[in-house]
Amino acid sequence: MIAPQPWTVAWVDPIHSVPALLLLAVLAYRLPALSEGGAARSLWLALLALAGGAVFNITPIASVVLATMGPSGQAVLVASCSVLASAFVLRLLAQTTGTRNGRTVTWLTAVVLLAMSVPLMVTTPASPRLSLTQQPLEPTAAGAAWLVHSVAVLSLLGWALLAGALLCRRYSRQAAPGPLRTRLYLIGLGCLTGCGFLVARVAVLVIGLVDPAGQWAAVGLTVRNVFLAGALLLIATGAGWPQLVGALSAASTEVASARSLLRLRRLWRLMVGVAPGIALTPSPVIRLLSGPLSLRERLYRRVMEIRDGLMALSPYADVDLREDVTASAVALGSPAATAEVVAEAVWITAALRAKDAGLDPSNDVEVISTAHRGGADLGAEVAWLVQVARAHARWPLTRRMVAEHLDDPVERAA
Protein backbone atom coordinates (compact mmCIF):
# COMPACT_ATOMS: atom_id res chain seq x y z
CA MET A 1 0.00 0.00 0.00
CA ILE A 2 1.24 3.49 -0.74
CA ALA A 3 1.13 6.30 1.78
CA PRO A 4 -1.23 9.24 1.20
CA GLN A 5 0.27 11.97 -0.96
CA PRO A 6 0.88 15.49 0.40
CA TRP A 7 -2.26 16.81 -1.34
CA THR A 8 -4.57 14.29 0.32
CA VAL A 9 -6.46 14.87 3.57
CA ALA A 10 -7.06 11.72 5.63
CA TRP A 11 -7.36 9.61 2.46
CA VAL A 12 -9.84 12.00 0.91
CA ASP A 13 -8.16 13.10 -2.31
CA PRO A 14 -9.88 16.32 -3.44
CA ILE A 15 -7.42 17.04 -6.22
CA HIS A 16 -8.63 13.94 -8.06
CA SER A 17 -12.03 13.18 -6.51
CA VAL A 18 -13.61 16.62 -7.12
CA PRO A 19 -12.92 16.61 -10.90
CA ALA A 20 -14.00 12.95 -11.06
CA LEU A 21 -17.32 13.67 -9.37
CA LEU A 22 -17.96 16.67 -11.61
CA LEU A 23 -17.17 14.62 -14.72
CA LEU A 24 -19.45 11.79 -13.57
CA ALA A 25 -22.27 14.29 -12.97
CA VAL A 26 -21.85 15.72 -16.48
CA LEU A 27 -21.78 12.19 -17.92
CA ALA A 28 -24.99 11.25 -16.14
CA TYR A 29 -26.76 14.37 -17.36
CA ARG A 30 -25.52 14.01 -20.95
CA LEU A 31 -26.22 10.27 -21.20
CA PRO A 32 -28.72 10.80 -24.09
CA ALA A 33 -25.73 11.93 -26.21
CA LEU A 34 -24.91 8.26 -26.78
CA SER A 35 -28.04 7.87 -28.89
CA GLU A 36 -27.38 11.11 -30.80
CA GLY A 37 -24.18 9.84 -32.37
CA GLY A 38 -21.61 11.99 -34.13
CA ALA A 39 -19.70 14.66 -32.24
CA ALA A 40 -22.04 14.47 -29.22
CA ARG A 41 -21.23 10.79 -28.70
CA SER A 42 -17.48 11.37 -29.16
CA LEU A 43 -17.54 14.12 -26.56
CA TRP A 44 -19.42 11.88 -24.12
CA LEU A 45 -16.94 9.02 -24.62
CA ALA A 46 -13.98 11.39 -24.20
CA LEU A 47 -15.45 12.65 -20.93
CA LEU A 48 -16.02 9.04 -19.85
CA ALA A 49 -12.37 8.20 -20.44
CA LEU A 50 -11.27 11.33 -18.58
CA ALA A 51 -13.55 10.43 -15.69
CA GLY A 52 -12.10 6.92 -15.60
CA GLY A 53 -8.57 8.28 -15.40
CA ALA A 54 -9.56 10.67 -12.61
CA VAL A 55 -11.28 7.89 -10.65
CA PHE A 56 -8.31 5.53 -10.93
CA ASN A 57 -6.02 8.34 -9.72
CA ILE A 58 -7.93 8.89 -6.46
CA THR A 59 -5.51 7.80 -3.76
CA PRO A 60 -7.62 5.13 -2.00
CA ILE A 61 -8.67 3.60 -5.35
CA ALA A 62 -5.16 3.89 -6.76
CA SER A 63 -3.77 2.07 -3.74
CA VAL A 64 -6.20 -0.83 -4.27
CA VAL A 65 -5.39 -1.02 -7.97
CA LEU A 66 -1.67 -0.91 -7.18
CA ALA A 67 -1.98 -3.72 -4.65
CA THR A 68 -3.92 -5.96 -7.04
CA MET A 69 -2.39 -5.15 -10.43
CA GLY A 70 1.08 -3.93 -9.49
CA PRO A 71 2.80 -0.76 -10.71
CA SER A 72 2.76 -1.84 -14.34
CA GLY A 73 -0.94 -2.67 -14.31
CA GLN A 74 -1.79 0.57 -12.55
CA ALA A 75 0.21 2.65 -15.03
CA VAL A 76 -1.32 0.88 -18.03
CA LEU A 77 -4.85 1.26 -16.67
CA VAL A 78 -4.56 5.01 -16.04
CA ALA A 79 -2.66 5.64 -19.28
CA SER A 80 -5.26 3.69 -21.28
CA CYS A 81 -7.89 6.17 -20.10
CA SER A 82 -5.71 9.07 -21.29
CA VAL A 83 -5.08 7.41 -24.65
CA LEU A 84 -8.75 6.65 -25.23
CA ALA A 85 -9.73 10.20 -24.20
CA SER A 86 -7.20 11.55 -26.71
CA ALA A 87 -8.55 9.28 -29.44
CA PHE A 88 -12.14 10.38 -28.85
CA VAL A 89 -11.09 14.03 -28.79
CA LEU A 90 -9.32 13.61 -32.13
CA ARG A 91 -12.39 11.86 -33.48
CA LEU A 92 -14.53 14.74 -32.20
CA LEU A 93 -12.28 17.28 -33.91
CA ALA A 94 -12.49 15.34 -37.16
CA GLN A 95 -16.29 15.24 -36.99
CA THR A 96 -16.42 18.95 -36.21
CA THR A 97 -14.13 20.03 -39.03
CA GLY A 98 -15.25 17.43 -41.57
CA THR A 99 -11.84 15.74 -41.73
CA ARG A 100 -11.91 12.03 -42.56
CA ASN A 101 -9.23 10.64 -40.28
CA GLY A 102 -11.23 8.06 -38.37
CA ARG A 103 -9.21 5.09 -39.65
CA THR A 104 -5.90 6.87 -39.03
CA VAL A 105 -6.87 7.72 -35.46
CA THR A 106 -7.97 4.13 -34.84
CA TRP A 107 -4.69 2.62 -36.05
CA LEU A 108 -2.63 5.24 -34.23
CA THR A 109 -4.52 4.60 -30.99
CA ALA A 110 -3.91 0.87 -31.30
CA VAL A 111 -0.18 1.43 -31.87
CA VAL A 112 0.07 3.77 -28.86
CA LEU A 113 -1.80 1.31 -26.63
CA LEU A 114 0.62 -1.47 -27.59
CA ALA A 115 3.69 0.73 -27.26
CA MET A 116 2.77 2.01 -23.82
CA SER A 117 1.55 -1.30 -22.35
CA VAL A 118 3.65 -4.16 -23.74
CA PRO A 119 7.07 -2.92 -22.55
CA LEU A 120 5.73 -2.37 -19.03
CA MET A 121 3.94 -5.68 -18.81
CA VAL A 122 7.06 -7.68 -19.74
CA THR A 123 9.38 -5.85 -17.33
CA THR A 124 9.39 -5.51 -13.56
CA PRO A 125 9.75 -2.09 -11.91
CA ALA A 126 12.54 -1.60 -9.41
CA SER A 127 10.20 -1.30 -6.43
CA PRO A 128 6.93 -3.26 -6.35
CA ARG A 129 5.52 -1.05 -3.57
CA LEU A 130 5.73 2.25 -5.43
CA SER A 131 3.85 3.62 -8.38
CA LEU A 132 6.01 4.05 -11.45
CA THR A 133 5.48 7.81 -11.19
CA GLN A 134 6.97 7.87 -7.70
CA GLN A 135 10.41 6.46 -8.37
CA PRO A 136 13.39 7.81 -10.33
CA LEU A 137 14.19 6.34 -13.71
CA GLU A 138 17.06 3.89 -13.70
CA PRO A 139 19.25 2.62 -16.57
CA THR A 140 17.45 -0.71 -16.58
CA ALA A 141 14.91 -2.48 -18.76
CA ALA A 142 12.16 -1.29 -16.43
CA GLY A 143 13.36 2.32 -16.72
CA ALA A 144 13.50 2.10 -20.51
CA ALA A 145 10.01 0.57 -20.60
CA TRP A 146 8.65 3.36 -18.45
CA LEU A 147 10.29 5.93 -20.73
CA VAL A 148 8.76 4.37 -23.87
CA HIS A 149 5.40 4.20 -22.09
CA SER A 150 5.51 7.89 -21.18
CA VAL A 151 6.63 9.08 -24.61
CA ALA A 152 3.87 7.14 -26.35
CA VAL A 153 1.13 8.42 -24.05
CA LEU A 154 2.34 12.01 -23.95
CA SER A 155 2.68 12.22 -27.73
CA LEU A 156 -0.93 11.30 -28.45
CA LEU A 157 -2.27 13.26 -25.47
CA GLY A 158 -0.29 16.35 -26.44
CA TRP A 159 -1.59 16.18 -30.00
CA ALA A 160 -5.19 15.94 -28.80
CA LEU A 161 -4.85 18.75 -26.23
CA LEU A 162 -3.12 21.16 -28.61
CA ALA A 163 -5.60 20.45 -31.40
CA GLY A 164 -8.50 20.88 -29.01
CA ALA A 165 -7.16 24.20 -27.72
CA LEU A 166 -6.65 25.55 -31.24
CA LEU A 167 -10.09 24.44 -32.41
CA CYS A 168 -11.84 25.95 -29.38
CA ARG A 169 -9.94 29.20 -29.92
CA ARG A 170 -11.01 29.30 -33.56
CA TYR A 171 -14.70 28.61 -33.01
CA SER A 172 -15.01 30.71 -29.86
CA ARG A 173 -14.03 33.77 -31.89
CA GLN A 174 -16.78 33.02 -34.39
CA ALA A 175 -19.46 32.26 -31.80
CA ALA A 176 -21.78 35.00 -30.59
CA PRO A 177 -21.60 36.01 -26.93
CA GLY A 178 -23.49 33.48 -24.86
CA PRO A 179 -23.29 29.96 -23.41
CA LEU A 180 -21.62 28.45 -26.50
CA ARG A 181 -18.73 30.91 -26.46
CA THR A 182 -18.25 30.48 -22.71
CA ARG A 183 -18.32 26.73 -23.15
CA LEU A 184 -15.64 26.84 -25.86
CA TYR A 185 -13.49 29.20 -23.80
CA LEU A 186 -13.60 26.88 -20.78
CA ILE A 187 -12.83 23.72 -22.77
CA GLY A 188 -10.03 25.51 -24.63
CA LEU A 189 -8.58 26.79 -21.38
CA GLY A 190 -8.82 23.27 -19.98
CA CYS A 191 -6.86 21.95 -22.96
CA LEU A 192 -4.18 24.59 -22.41
CA THR A 193 -4.01 23.67 -18.74
CA GLY A 194 -3.67 20.06 -19.86
CA CYS A 195 -0.65 21.13 -21.90
CA GLY A 196 0.77 22.48 -18.65
CA PHE A 197 0.18 19.05 -17.15
CA LEU A 198 2.18 17.51 -20.00
CA VAL A 199 5.06 19.93 -19.43
CA ALA A 200 5.05 19.11 -15.72
CA ARG A 201 5.02 15.39 -16.48
CA VAL A 202 7.97 15.76 -18.85
CA ALA A 203 9.72 17.70 -16.09
CA VAL A 204 9.12 14.77 -13.73
CA LEU A 205 10.70 12.42 -16.27
CA VAL A 206 13.71 14.69 -16.70
CA ILE A 207 14.10 14.99 -12.94
CA GLY A 208 14.01 11.20 -12.72
CA LEU A 209 16.85 11.01 -15.24
CA VAL A 210 19.13 13.71 -13.78
CA ASP A 211 18.26 13.35 -10.09
CA PRO A 212 18.38 9.67 -9.13
CA ALA A 213 17.88 10.61 -5.48
CA GLY A 214 14.45 11.96 -6.36
CA GLN A 215 14.70 15.06 -4.14
CA TRP A 216 12.52 17.13 -6.49
CA ALA A 217 10.22 14.34 -7.59
CA ALA A 218 7.55 15.11 -4.96
CA VAL A 219 7.41 18.78 -6.02
CA GLY A 220 7.13 17.81 -9.66
CA LEU A 221 4.36 15.32 -8.93
CA THR A 222 2.40 17.88 -6.95
CA VAL A 223 2.64 20.47 -9.74
CA ARG A 224 1.68 17.85 -12.30
CA ASN A 225 -1.41 16.82 -10.37
CA VAL A 226 -2.49 20.42 -9.80
CA PHE A 227 -2.39 20.99 -13.57
CA LEU A 228 -4.29 17.75 -14.12
CA ALA A 229 -7.01 18.72 -11.65
CA GLY A 230 -7.32 22.18 -13.20
CA ALA A 231 -7.61 20.76 -16.72
CA LEU A 232 -10.26 18.24 -15.71
CA LEU A 233 -12.30 20.84 -13.82
CA LEU A 234 -12.23 23.31 -16.72
CA ILE A 235 -13.12 20.69 -19.33
CA ALA A 236 -15.91 19.23 -17.19
CA THR A 237 -17.29 22.70 -16.41
CA GLY A 238 -17.20 23.68 -20.07
CA ALA A 239 -18.86 20.44 -21.17
CA GLY A 240 -21.68 20.91 -18.69
CA TRP A 241 -21.83 24.71 -18.76
CA PRO A 242 -25.52 25.11 -19.84
CA GLN A 243 -26.61 22.61 -17.21
CA LEU A 244 -24.39 24.23 -14.59
CA VAL A 245 -25.83 27.67 -15.36
CA GLY A 246 -29.34 26.26 -15.15
CA ALA A 247 -28.64 24.60 -11.81
CA LEU A 248 -27.08 27.76 -10.39
CA SER A 249 -30.03 29.83 -11.63
CA ALA A 250 -32.48 27.42 -9.99
CA ALA A 251 -30.49 27.47 -6.75
CA SER A 252 -30.38 31.28 -6.83
CA THR A 253 -34.15 31.39 -7.34
CA GLU A 254 -34.71 29.09 -4.35
CA VAL A 255 -32.39 31.15 -2.14
CA ALA A 256 -34.16 34.38 -3.15
CA SER A 257 -37.53 32.75 -2.49
CA ALA A 258 -36.43 31.62 0.97
CA ARG A 259 -35.21 35.13 1.78
CA SER A 260 -38.49 36.67 0.61
CA LEU A 261 -40.51 34.17 2.64
CA LEU A 262 -38.66 35.24 5.78
CA ARG A 263 -39.15 38.94 5.03
CA LEU A 264 -42.87 38.50 4.42
CA ARG A 265 -43.49 36.28 7.44
CA ARG A 266 -44.49 39.08 9.84
CA LEU A 267 -46.92 40.67 7.37
CA TRP A 268 -48.35 37.26 6.53
CA ARG A 269 -48.94 36.50 10.21
CA LEU A 270 -50.79 39.81 10.56
CA MET A 271 -53.03 38.91 7.62
CA VAL A 272 -53.71 35.40 8.94
CA GLY A 273 -54.63 36.95 12.30
CA VAL A 274 -57.13 39.18 10.51
CA ALA A 275 -58.66 36.42 8.39
CA PRO A 276 -57.53 32.88 9.34
CA GLY A 277 -59.41 31.47 6.38
CA ILE A 278 -56.90 32.90 3.90
CA ALA A 279 -54.28 30.25 4.75
CA LEU A 280 -54.13 27.89 1.78
CA THR A 281 -53.46 24.62 3.57
CA PRO A 282 -53.84 21.67 1.17
CA SER A 283 -55.38 18.46 2.39
CA PRO A 284 -53.10 15.48 3.19
CA VAL A 285 -54.31 13.70 0.05
CA ILE A 286 -53.39 16.66 -2.17
CA ARG A 287 -50.00 16.98 -0.47
CA LEU A 288 -49.37 13.28 -1.07
CA LEU A 289 -50.33 13.47 -4.73
CA SER A 290 -48.58 16.73 -5.59
CA GLY A 291 -45.52 16.25 -3.43
CA PRO A 292 -43.74 18.96 -1.44
CA LEU A 293 -43.94 22.52 -2.72
CA SER A 294 -40.81 24.28 -3.88
CA LEU A 295 -39.79 27.49 -2.16
CA ARG A 296 -40.95 29.50 -5.16
CA GLU A 297 -44.36 27.81 -5.06
CA ARG A 298 -44.62 28.52 -1.34
CA LEU A 299 -43.72 32.15 -2.00
CA TYR A 300 -46.41 32.39 -4.68
CA ARG A 301 -48.95 30.95 -2.25
CA ARG A 302 -47.88 33.33 0.51
CA VAL A 303 -48.29 36.34 -1.78
CA MET A 304 -51.82 35.22 -2.62
CA GLU A 305 -52.61 34.78 1.07
CA ILE A 306 -51.33 38.26 1.90
CA ARG A 307 -53.36 39.73 -0.95
CA ASP A 308 -56.45 37.93 0.34
CA GLY A 309 -55.78 39.38 3.78
CA LEU A 310 -55.48 42.89 2.37
CA MET A 311 -58.74 42.38 0.54
CA ALA A 312 -60.35 41.29 3.82
CA LEU A 313 -59.13 44.56 5.40
CA SER A 314 -60.49 46.73 2.57
CA PRO A 315 -63.85 47.55 4.24
CA TYR A 316 -62.14 48.86 7.39
CA ALA A 317 -60.01 51.74 6.02
CA ASP A 318 -60.78 54.95 4.15
CA VAL A 319 -60.00 54.67 0.46
CA ASP A 320 -58.65 58.25 0.43
CA LEU A 321 -56.16 57.58 3.23
CA ARG A 322 -53.45 56.39 0.86
CA GLU A 323 -53.58 59.56 -1.23
CA ASP A 324 -53.47 61.79 1.86
CA VAL A 325 -50.48 59.97 3.35
CA THR A 326 -48.68 59.94 0.00
CA ALA A 327 -49.12 63.68 -0.36
CA SER A 328 -47.88 64.30 3.19
CA ALA A 329 -44.79 62.12 2.73
CA VAL A 330 -43.93 63.79 -0.58
CA ALA A 331 -44.33 67.20 1.07
CA LEU A 332 -41.69 66.15 3.60
CA GLY A 333 -39.25 65.43 0.77
CA SER A 334 -39.69 61.68 0.36
CA PRO A 335 -39.57 60.19 -3.15
CA ALA A 336 -42.91 59.27 -4.64
CA ALA A 337 -42.12 55.53 -4.57
CA THR A 338 -41.21 55.67 -0.87
CA ALA A 339 -44.31 57.73 -0.11
CA GLU A 340 -46.53 55.10 -1.74
CA VAL A 341 -44.96 52.33 0.34
CA VAL A 342 -45.46 54.32 3.53
CA ALA A 343 -49.05 55.10 2.54
CA GLU A 344 -49.79 51.39 2.12
CA ALA A 345 -48.25 50.62 5.53
CA VAL A 346 -50.31 53.38 7.19
CA TRP A 347 -53.44 52.12 5.46
CA ILE A 348 -52.81 48.63 6.88
CA THR A 349 -52.37 50.08 10.36
CA ALA A 350 -55.62 52.01 10.05
CA ALA A 351 -57.54 48.94 8.85
CA LEU A 352 -56.12 46.76 11.64
CA ARG A 353 -57.05 49.34 14.28
CA ALA A 354 -60.57 49.66 12.94
CA LYS A 355 -61.13 45.92 12.88
CA ASP A 356 -59.61 45.42 16.34
CA ALA A 357 -61.85 48.20 17.69
CA GLY A 358 -64.90 46.32 16.45
CA LEU A 359 -66.01 48.96 13.97
CA ASP A 360 -68.51 47.90 11.35
CA PRO A 361 -67.02 47.29 7.90
CA SER A 362 -68.04 49.58 5.06
CA ASN A 363 -70.66 48.36 2.64
CA ASP A 364 -69.44 50.69 -0.10
CA VAL A 365 -68.64 48.51 -3.11
CA GLU A 366 -66.17 51.09 -4.40
CA VAL A 367 -64.19 50.93 -1.17
CA ILE A 368 -64.16 47.14 -0.99
CA SER A 369 -63.10 46.66 -4.62
CA THR A 370 -60.34 49.27 -4.53
CA ALA A 371 -57.22 47.78 -6.13
CA HIS A 372 -54.08 47.74 -4.04
CA ARG A 373 -50.78 48.90 -5.41
CA GLY A 374 -48.37 46.16 -6.39
CA GLY A 375 -46.37 44.62 -9.19
CA ALA A 376 -47.23 43.28 -12.64
CA ASP A 377 -45.57 39.91 -11.98
CA LEU A 378 -44.52 37.76 -9.04
CA GLY A 379 -41.08 39.35 -8.69
CA ALA A 380 -42.41 42.90 -8.69
CA GLU A 381 -45.24 41.93 -6.35
CA VAL A 382 -42.85 40.33 -3.87
CA ALA A 383 -40.55 43.36 -3.99
CA TRP A 384 -43.52 45.66 -3.29
CA LEU A 385 -44.84 43.60 -0.38
CA VAL A 386 -41.37 43.27 1.15
CA GLN A 387 -41.05 47.07 1.15
CA VAL A 388 -44.50 47.41 2.69
CA ALA A 389 -43.64 44.87 5.36
CA ARG A 390 -40.46 46.77 6.26
CA ALA A 391 -42.24 50.11 6.29
CA HIS A 392 -45.01 48.75 8.51
CA ALA A 393 -42.54 47.15 10.91
CA ARG A 394 -39.89 49.77 11.53
CA TRP A 395 -39.71 52.82 9.24
CA PRO A 396 -39.66 56.09 11.27
CA LEU A 397 -41.55 57.85 8.48
CA THR A 398 -44.40 55.35 8.85
CA ARG A 399 -44.65 56.07 12.57
CA ARG A 400 -44.71 59.79 11.85
CA MET A 401 -47.47 59.42 9.27
CA VAL A 402 -49.48 57.20 11.63
CA ALA A 403 -49.23 59.85 14.33
CA GLU A 404 -50.21 62.58 11.90
CA HIS A 405 -53.13 60.88 10.16
CA LEU A 406 -54.46 58.31 12.62
CA ASP A 407 -53.70 59.39 16.21
CA ASP A 408 -55.90 61.89 18.04
CA PRO A 409 -54.49 65.39 18.61
CA VAL A 410 -54.34 64.69 22.35
CA GLU A 411 -52.28 61.53 21.73
CA ARG A 412 -49.92 63.36 19.37
CA ALA A 413 -49.39 66.09 21.97
CA ALA A 414 -48.67 63.50 24.61
Structural class: mainly alpha
Shape: elongated
Compute the average pLDDT.
78
Q: What is the H/E string?
A: HHHHHHHHHHHHHHHHH
Number of continuous helical runs: 17
Unreliably modeled segments: 126-132, 409-414
Cα separation of the termini: 84 Å
Radius of gyration: 34 Å
Strand portion: under 5%
Proportion of residues in helical segments: over 70%
Largest sheet: none
Q: What is the multimeric organization of the chains shown?
A: single chain
Strand element count: 0
What does this protein look like?
With 414 residues, the chain is an all-alpha fold. It contains 17 helices and no strands. Helix 6 packs antiparallel against helix 7 and helix 9 packs across helix 15 (378-394).
